[in-house]
Each structure stands twice: as structure tokens, then as C-alpha cells.
Amino acid sequence: MILRMAMAWMLVATVWAQEPNELIVKQSERERLYLMTLEKMLDLAKPVHRIDADASRIGLDLRSGSAGYRGEIEPFWRIRALPDRWLNPPTWAISSDKPVIGLLEDFTGRNLSEHPKTALLDEGISCVRFLGGWKKPSRPGGEYEEGTPIESYDLVYRGDDGALKYRWERVHGRLDPLVENGLTPLIVLDNVPHMFAEGEGNPVYGQHLAPNDFEAWGTFIEALCRELADRYGFEKVNQWRFRVGTEMDNPNHWEGGAEDSLVKYLKTYDHAAAAVKRVLPGAKIGPCNFNSMFAGQIDRKVPPMAVFEHFARGTNYATGEIGSPADFAAVSSYGMYWMGGEFDHPLAAAYGYHPDTLRLHADLLKRLRATSPRFADIPIEVHEHGTLMNKNNTVSYEPGAFGAAWTATQYIVGIEEGFAQIFHWADHEGFRGNIILYGHAWLRAVMERFVGGEAWVLPVANATEDAFIDALAVRRDGRLYLMISAYRAEREDRSQETVEIPLPRRYRGAAVRQLRMDHETSPYEQMLRDLKAAGEAKAAIGATGMMATPAGRQMLAGQADRYVEMQRDSFTWKPFEGNVRNRFWRGPVLETPVAVPSVTVLRIE
């Protein structure tokens, strides 16, 4: 200790003894060096604190020019996807007087009750299979009524005279509730109506064949756009977006038939895009969201790069000019166990839940943008996103802690890679008038507090190789928020990690509060525990219809108040559960326990 003190005083003497002309610095700089050296002296005089070798360490550099700086946070999560017959209420619609709306308004500061119905936090809905071309549902529900010919849900058909006839009442029924409640639709031109089909459609997603008359197809899309403008106003609809197709590189969604699938898709796209632009020159249009699987998993008959090469340099099949419009580029991206174990890929060991999966999708989209200077600045987006298939071959929205943690990591990667939008699927369940949010919906509500703030994606030195720990810092309205996600690809793996975060000196003495979504705070994890205790659990965590027997579902509904209270409590800022270690002349170090899986959000002010 004496030797360490002597070394420190020697450093002070060295700095203080130098003449100003030797230092060639101002007096204020010399004082700064002195204070830094004094701090070093005092650090040397203290017992050595060794960082826990088992702790993960988060780097925090809050300069606007730092490597992790990502600018202002935009609410890229405020849009959901809904397919075919489920476009109509009540699938998405929640009455604005529900208690959960008041809870979310109080927490987020947003006005969510401006209209009679709301889609929780969302401002838009992706209208999948909007045109018709449906497969026959196995049971009634939504817009479909049993015994009704499936073709009657198409927006277009041929009359006895051979002319195109339209069912605009179907358009009104699907879109009026959205528009009247302040939501903006993304019009998806995917499954073509049955009158255009060259044969039988695919039993998985419905009609997947190309139009048999591209001129008539273009005429139909133009008529549709005129109806939209007449019904909802040109100025409004001229700002809408249109997407031609859904995962057209997946054979279950698209089959060219006798002619090449790629050529058929390009013709379908060009005629649709030309029709939209004729009526709505300000509307945005883009190609399908390309499938999330990698080369070798599917027979990709519509390669994404070939599509954009045509857009960049090909002859437009509708106009005869060079090139086609493309106002965005999109993919699907799912957490999905690659079944069978036959697919050889470095990420396969993580069962499709590795954070780098989204980075690979971002790389594809950026290569698509690079095909032409016209596309250099178009937004990249994820139009289908969520957990899909786990290692147990169980399909699940993962409404608990794992789903929240995986989604948080995905969103951090999305911010890092510059995604403009990341859509989501279902986000809640109803229990006798009460709404219980899925874990990933809880996450989106929390992130509403970040909107408009400056964001940094933080480097994390993970102490555990197989634990994915990611962190985001957001500075807004004088507060610093730190969001830490932690999970393992093996959903059932649970552990406790320790995370250290060195803070800048200005946060010395700051108040720290926290929110946390983990196995103890998630309402759905509690539901599963209750089901197991009652012997009414039939599957691992999932929507209640998946993890509960019929009797179990009745039991959960009967004690819904308990889960509603847990949900309310999850939005209540709590005292910081970790430790704060102060350092002389430097900022404090936060040491916090992090459960795996979990999302921890710290508020520092």
C-alpha cells in the first residue's frame, strides 16, 4: 500500500512541477491532469476491486459520435399483420374504454382512446390476402360464414358478359373499421382472386398461382385504387403503401405454373405497380417480404436478387421502360427451430433464435438496395416477425419472459441495422373483459417511453458464451434508460447473470428505478404455474388455448383479476435491486442481477 501511495504522489509531482511552456497547455488543462492524477492516486490507495469474472460488462459511451450511436428512436413497432378473414373486428379491435387502455395511456403518455376502437399501440395494419384468393377455412369465423362459396370473398369476378365485376362492399367491410379508427392499412396484393387462376391453389395459404391475364389484372388493380381514393379520399390514400405479394420466394405462396415463376412474378408486379402509380402517384409500392429461410432450406423460385436486378435494369413488362419502382425492401424474420437437423448452418445450434439471424436478413436487404442508386435510401423492413417454432416443435407466440427477451434483442439488432419497421402478430388475450398483454407487447409499451430520445446500441462483453445479453441506452427528457435483454436459445434454460454498467460521472448520486419482465413477473408464466399445480397444463408456455385444457382455461378466466394485477404491477417502477458502487471523481458502476430469460429496464435520473 505504501508503495502504491508513493507511486501516486510521484505522478502528481510530475504533472504539477512542469512549467506551462513544457506542457503547452492552458491552466485549466493542467488542473484537469492534476485531478485525473489525484483520482488515480486515490484509486491506487484503495483496496483493489476485481471485477467479477462471471459478470458481463456493458460499455457506455454516450457521445453522439460514438460507434453505438443510432440517432433518434422512431416507433418502428407500431404496425401488425392480419390475414384474410380476420381483418374485420373484433380480431384487432379493443374498446377504448377497456382498463388496459387507461393503463397504457398512463404509462406511455400517448392518447390511445381517441377513437371508439383501438389496436393497442398500433397505428397501422398489414392487410394480408386482402384481394381474396382464400382457401376454404376449416371452420367459420371472422368474415367467413360456413356454406358460402369461397370465391364470393374475392374482390373481382367475371360477369356473364365476360366483363370484370367488383365486390367493393368487401373492401368497405375490411377497411372502413380500420380507417374510421385512425389506422392506416398496408394494402397487400398477394393471393390473386380465383377468376385469374390457371388451376387449383395451394392448400396451405390459398390461391398461389399467377394471373392468367396480366392486362385484366392491371385493370382490376387500377379500379381498386380508384375505389379506395373515392371511398377514403385521394389525399389520404395517395400516402398509403402497397405490397405485391407475400413471401413469393416460398413455393407455398407462389407458383408460376407453365412459365417460369420469376417471370410470372415480375409481370404480376410490374402491372400492379403501374396501375397503382397511374391512380396514386404518391403511394409507395414494393415487392413481397422475402421468406426468412436461408439457401438450402427452400427451393427459392423467385430469388430476391433477381427481382431487384429486374427493378434496376430490366424492361418493365407493363410500361416497356427500363426499371420498376420499389419504395421499400422487406423480409420475414422468425425465431424458428430448424426441424430435422439436416440444415447445416452456423446459427443452427441456436435453433433459429440467434440474434445474428436478423443481421443476415439485414445484409440481404442492403445488398438489394445496392442494385441501383435509386434504391440506396429505401427503407428496409420486417413484415412478419415473431417466435414461430421452438425445439419441441411447438408453435407459440411465446407470451412470457422468453418472448419478451428474444424480441428485445431483435429490436436492439433492428435499431443497430437501421430497420424502419418491424411488424408483429397477435399481442394479447382476452379474459372475461380483461386484456392480458403478451410479453413482447409489454416490451413495446415500455419502449414507447424511448420514442424521440437519442439511442445507443451498447457493446456487451458477455461472461457466458451461450447467453445472449444485449443492451440499449436511450436519453430522453433528462432521463437515461438502459434496456438489457438476456436469453438462451434453449427456452427452458434458466440462470442468473450479473451485469456491470459503468456510468458517466454526471450520474453520480442519481436515482435508479427499474422494470423487469421475467419468470416471476410475467402473467403468462404465473398462468402456467397455476395450470401445472391444478393438473390442467397440456403444453409448455403459449397462448392459453395451447397450454391449458378446457377446464384449465375456465380456471384462468375465473382468476383473471390476479393476472390483471400482475400486469399493472409490471408497469410500476420499482427500487433498483442491484448495487451502486461509487468511484472517486468518476461515475458509479451499476451491478445488477439479470435473470435468463428476462428484460430489465433501468431509469436513471
Written account of the structure:
There is one protein chain. The protein has 605 residues and is of the alpha/beta class. Among the domains are: 44 residues; 351 residues, Glycosidases (TIM Barrel). Helix content is 31%, strand content 22%. The chain has 16 helices and 27 strands. It has a seven-stranded antiparallel sheet with strand order 2-18-20-21-27-23-24, covered by helices on one side. Strands 19-1-22-26-25 form a five-stranded mixed sheet, with no helix packed on it. It has a five-stranded parallel sheet with strand order 3-6-9-10-11, with helices on one face. A hairpin with a 5-residue loop joins strand 7 and strand 8. The longest helix is centred in the N-terminal third of the chain and has 19 residues.
Task: Show the helix and strand layout.
Layout: H1 2-17, H2 20-23, H3 27-45, E1 55-58, E2 69-72, E3 79-83, E4 94-95, H4 99-108, E5 117-118, E6 124-128, E7 156-158, E8 164-166, H5 168-180, E9 184-188, H6 214-232, H7 234-237, E10 241-244, H8 261-279, E11 284-287, E12 289-290, H9 304-313, E13 329-336, H10 356-369, E14 380-389, H11 401-417, E15 421-422, E16 428-431, E17 434-437, H12 439-447, E18 454-458, E19 460-461, E20 468-476, E21 479-487, E22 495-502, E23 512-517, H13 523-534, H14 544-547, H15 550-558, H16 560-570, E24 574-575, E25 579-583, E26 586-596, E27 598-604
Parallel strand pairs: 1-22, 3-6, 6-9, 9-10, 10-11, 12-13, 13-14, 14-15
Antiparallel strand pairs: 1-19, 2-18, 4-5, 7-8, 16-17, 18-20, 20-21, 21-27, 22-26, 23-24, 23-27, 25-26
